[in-house]
Design brief:
single chain, 212 residues, alpha/beta, 9 helices, 35% helix
């Protein structure tokens, strides 16, 4: 990290870090410096390019962004500082712990973009998309809330779609192949995405939380 990034980690991150006490997230919209009317969650934001771009484009959305790697957090902090963003709060622990703290039906939108695919067979149980986690996500999403999952790893694309389709609270919104092969109009490319490290072209699965 650069000296500036280390300074942001030391001084800005503590001000933007989401609280981890039980009950502290009961009024999550009040956690943001800006006045926001929606609550979004991005899980595993990498370098934060997507977080900062969405935050700038959607000032009415309070974005909770989760990432465990300090280098990515530092890059995101740089964007937040440079762009003067007031609608982003950060979580630097396991995203599943954050979801467990959230109130029922509080999220308007969720992004899980290019998560770690854990390519080795023996490690794939560590993938974030698991049946139990989807049940917990469905608990905290409002009816009609959208979830976007993207990956460029074939085995993860196939496995994740199978898990999503088996969870009755989510509806896959694709009608044609172009709906998942083409980046959505409001997608912002990430640094990882431009590296083309996967074994397929990126796929974008869009789901909606069904009405209970």
């Amino acid at each position: 990290m650069s000296g500036r990034q280390q300074s942001l980690v030391d001084n800005l991150l503590p001000r933007l870090r989401l609280p981890d006490e039980a009950g502290a997230l009961k009024g999550p919209l009040d956690l943001f410096d800006a006045k926001v009317s929606q609550l979004w969650l991005e899980i595993g934001f990498g370098g934060g390019e997507h977080v900062s771009a969405q935050a700038k484009a959607n000032p009415d959305a309070g974005i909770m962004a989760s990432e465990v790697f300090i280098e990515g957090i530092a890059k995101c902090l740089s964007d937040i500082d440079d762009m003067g963003l007031q609608n982003v709060r950060l979580w630097d622990e396991d995203a599943r712990e954050l979801v467990n703290l959230l109130l029922d039906t509080c999220l308007d939108r969720v992004f899980i973009l290019f998560p770690d695919p854990w390519p080795k067979k023996r490690h794939q149980k560590r993938r974030i998309i698991q049946p139990d986690f989807l049940i917990e996500l469905s608990r905290v999403m409002k009816p009609g809330a959208r979830l976007r999952f993207a990956t460029d790893v074939r085995s993860y694309a196939d496995e994740a779609l199978t898990i999503f389709l088996a969870e009755p609270s989510f509806e896959w919104l694709a009608k044609t192949a172009d709906d998942w092969r083409t980046p959505p109009p409001d997608h912002f490319r990430t640094r990882y995405e431009t590296k083309n490290l996967g074994d397929i072209a990126p796929v974008f699965y869009e789901f909606e939380r069904k009405n209970s």
